[in-house]
Amino acid sequence: MGLSVIKLGGSLLTDKSKPYTMRKEKFREIARELKESMDEMIIVHGVGSYGHPPVKEYKLYRGYTGKENLLNLAKTQSIVFELRLEFVRALQEEGINAMIFLPSSQIVAEGMKIKKICIEPIKRFLEMGMTPVFGGDIVVDTKMGYSVCSGDLIAAHLASELNAERLIFATDVDGIYTKDPKKDKNAKLLKEINLENMDELAKLTGSAFTDVTSGMYGKIETIRKYKNDLKNTEIVILSMLKEGNLKAYMRNMKDAKYTKIKIK
Ligand code: ADP
User: Fold this and answer.
1) How far is it, in rounded angstroms, from Cα 202 to Cα 209?
2) Which residue has the least CA distance to atom 19 on ligand 1?
3) What's the 63 CA to ligand 1 centre distance in angstroms?
4) What CA–CA distance (Å, rounded) separates 209 from 206?
5) For residue 89, pLDDT beyond 80
6) Angle in degrees, CA 39, 154, 182, rounded to 5
7) Burial class (CB in 10 A: 0-12, 13-18, 19+), 157
8) How many domains in the chain?
9) Which domain holds residue 142?
10) 153-190 tens-digit pLDDT
11) Which residues fall in the annotated binding site for ATP?
12) For residues 259 and 178, is the Cβ–Cβ distance under 8 A?
C-alpha cells in the first residue's frame, strides 16, 4: 500500500468557532476509520481551537519578542498537549501504534519554512511498525527566534522527504469548491485542480479563495512550496466528518468524494 501521510485538520478535531472545544465524540470514529483504511502511515493533526486562541492572545505568531512572553509560550504548548494526548489515546484505543513526536524537539525553521528535521527516529520507528503522530507546534526559527509550524507544513514536508505514496488532507468539507461551501449553497466540488492553473482557479472561485485567511488557500500554497518533491505523491483533500469517505477513497470506490491536487 505504501506510506500515507495524513493531515487531520483542526476543523475536524476541534470546533474552530469555540475556543478549547475538542470534537471528542469523533475521535474514536476517526481512529477506527484510519485503522481500517491505512497500513503504514504518519498522522499529522491541526490544533484548531486549542492552538489558535493562545497563539493570538499572546501574539506568539510574532516570534521571539523578549523573555517576558516565554512562559506564555510554555503554557500554550501544554494547552495544545491536552488535545494531542486525548487524540493519541483514542488512536491507541482503536489499536494504532500511535506515538507522539513533538515538532519543537525535531524541527528547525527559517522564516516559517522547515530548514531541518531530525528524520532518522521517524524513519526507524515507522519501519518498526509505529505510527508517528505530529501536530502543529511552535519551533525554533533562525530568523524569528521561534515561529508557528502548521500541521499542513509538517505534513507536506514529511510526505516529500519520505517520498510518500499519498498525502491526504482530511478536513470538514469534501474538498475544494468553487466557493466556500459553508457560505454558498451553490458551491460545486472540484474533482481535480492543477497547481499550474492557479490563475484559472482564482477566476473560478472568485477573490474569496485567494484571501490569505482562507484555510484552503493556505493548504495549496504549502503544497506548492514542495511541488518539485511531490511529483510521485498522490495529493487529495477530503472530508472525514462522516465515517466511510476515507475508506471509499482508499478502495478506489466511485462514491468517494475528494479533490485531487495535480502538480502537472
Ligand atoms: P483544517 O483546519 O481542517 O486544516 P481549514 O479550516 O484551514 O482546514 O480549511 C478548511 C475550510 O476552508 C473549510 O471548512 C471551508 O469552510 C473553508 N473554505 C474556504 N474556501 C473554500 C473553498 N473554495 N472550498 C472549500 N473550502 C473552503
Assistant:
1) 6
2) 180
3) 26
4) 6
5) yes
6) 90
7) buried
8) 1
9) 4-262
10) 999 999 999 999 999 999 999 999 988 898 889 999 99
11) 7-11, 48, 172, 177-182, 215, 219
12) no
Taking residues 238-264, what's their average pLDDT? Answer: 93
pLDDT tens-digit profile of 33-77? 999 999 999 999 999 999 999 999 999 999 999 999 999 999 999
Hey, is 148 helix, strand or coil?
A: strand
- Do the beta carbons of residue 139 and residue 108 sit within 8 Å? yes
Cα–Cα distance measured from residue 172 to residue 237, given in angstroms and rounded to the nearest whole number: 10
Q: Can you tell me which residue has the cell 516565554?
A: 70
Q: Is 13 in the pocket of ligand 1 (CB under 6 A)?
A: no
Strands 4-8 and 41-45: parallel
DSSP string computed for 169-231: EEESSSS-BSS-TTT-TT--B-SEEEGGGHHHHHHHH-HHHH-TT-HHHHHHHHHHHTGGG-T
Tell me which residue has cell 519554512: 113
CA atoms within 13 A on the CB side of 218: 11
Do the beta carbons of residue 150 and residue 135 sit within 8 Å?
no
CATH code: domain of residue 233: 3.40.1160.10
Name the 3-class secondary structure at 97: coil
Q: Rounded distance, CA 82 to CA 87, Å?
A: 9
Most informative mutation of 5, 8, 11 for ligand 1 (most atoms within 8 A of CB)? 11
How many angstroms separate the CA atoms of 53 and 31, rounded?
26
Q: How confident is the model at residue 199 (pLDDT cuts 50, 70, 90)?
A: low
